[in-house]
Write a structure and sequence with these properties.
The protein is an all-alpha fold. It has 4 helices and no strands. Helix 1 packs antiparallel against helix 2. It is flat. The relative contact order is 0.14.
Length: 131
């Protein structure tokens, strides 16, 4: 990568980090159940649970993204010459991919291969077992 490309990636990582940190954590409401729940509380409970689940999921995604950004900043600082090379095949990651996702570690081919290996198996149908 050229020094200009490295600087663009560095700025983009800084922007993304500020964006993720600025968004803050999504508040997860604690259950406020009294000794005797009313009918309205029982009807509302599934929606509260869904809100909590969504908030928790968003917090996990943001925390994961922040970890990847921090890792990319560290890699860029420690070894700028190898930044932008795929961690698996060591080919150059296209600059456009790094502009969009400056924290990626793999080229598209290696990322696709890794995702297909970790994908959950497809559920079999009854007819798949028919001879």
């Amino acid at each position: 990568m050229t020094p200009a490309e490295i600087e663009r990636v560095r700025r983009r990582l800084t922007e993304l980090r500020a964006e993720v940190e600025g968004a803050g954590a999504v508040a997860v409401r604690a259950e406020d159940i009294g000794p005797v729940p009313s009918a309205a509380d029982e009807d509302e409970a599934p929606f509260r649970e869904m809100d909590q689940s969504i908030a928790s999921s968003r917090n996990r995604v943001r925390a994961d993204q922040l970890l990847r950004i921090v890792d990319a900043e560290r890699r860029l600082e420690e070894d700028p010459d190898s930044f932008g090379l795929c961690a698996k095949c060591e080919e150059e990651i296209p600059p456009r991919r790094l502009e969009l996702l400056p924290f990626v570690r793999y080229c598209v081919s290696c990322q696709s291969a890794a995702e297909s290996k970790s994908a959950k198996p497809v559920r079999k149908k009854v007819m798949d077992y028919h001879e």
